[in-house]
Design brief:
alpha+beta; hypothetical protein yedk fold; 8-stranded mixed sheet; 5-stranded antiparallel sheet
């Protein structure tokens, strides 16, 4: 599965470049699908960035409602869709109880009513610096790891978007991340991993149905793991 992911300074900078490049869209349009109740960020949730670790200047900060750093379920993040970059809430609302559904299994997504339509009509790419997972021991979560692509600054995850209404009747966009069986590099930590795309596969994922089916069936790329915080 993928329960949290990381958006660091480099991914932030890439999103800013996409928003302001020749193929970008207006920032106001990118934020149009954000839930009304998410338009006020918690203090400190998305601090301004002044420089990278190397001292290089970074672009001006994105709106505070878009989460940077460790992204949690129900946070708002930038995704790349067929209309360019937009902001969306992570997780489809659960149809039986409170909470959100953040992942969809690649093996069965096309069979599920909740996922079939978005997967066929509105796929997206979620840029990240990597994703977090916890190993298990004795049935309990143990060590936290950050999984990244070796030699790559951005890890692109395959997802889909759908439109929902909040409690006030306002429409908002939400996304889920597709997962697949863990490969050899991931299996020692967890039995699932996101469906991962190469940088030059983003447009194919969004617009090519045949490529989508192929991507859902193939094994994931080799990952490197970085130990993180210990979880009890």
């Amino acid at each position: 599965m993928c329960g949290r992911f990381l958006v660091d300074d480099e991914v932030y900078a890439e999103m800013w470049e996409l928003l302001n490049g020749p193929d970008g869209i207006a920032l106001s349009d990118a934020l149009a699908g954000v839930p009304a109740d998410a338009r006020t960020a918690s203090p400190g949730e998305a601090p301004g960035l002044e420089s990278s670790g190397s001292g290089e200047a970074l672009p001006p900060p994105l709106p505070a409602l878009v989460k940077r750093g460790e992204v949690f379920p129900a946070n708002t993040a930038f995704v790349i869709g067929n209309g360019g970059v937009e902001a969306a809430k992570w997780g489809f609302p659960h149809w039986k109880r409170s909470g959100v559904i953040i992942n969809a299994r690649s093996e069965t997504a096309l069979e599920k009513n909740m996922f079939r339509g978005p997967l066929m009509r509105r796929r997206c790419v979620i840029p990240s610096s990597g994703f977090y997972e916890w190993s298990r021991g004795g049935g309990k979560l143990k060590d936290k790891y950050l999984l990244r692509l070796p030699g790559e600054r951005v890890l692109y995850m395959a997802g889909m978007i759908s439109i929902f209404r909040d409690s006030g009747g306002c429409e908002y966009s939400a996304f889920v991340i597709l997962t697949t069986a863990a490969n050899e590099s991931m299996a020692p930590i967890h039995d699932r991993m996101p469906v991962i795309l190469a940088p030059d596969e983003r447009e194919q994922w969004i617009g090519d149905d045949d490529f989508m089916r192929q991507a859902l069936r193939r094994p994931g790329p080799e990952l490197v793991s970085h130990p993180g915080a210990t979880s009890g």
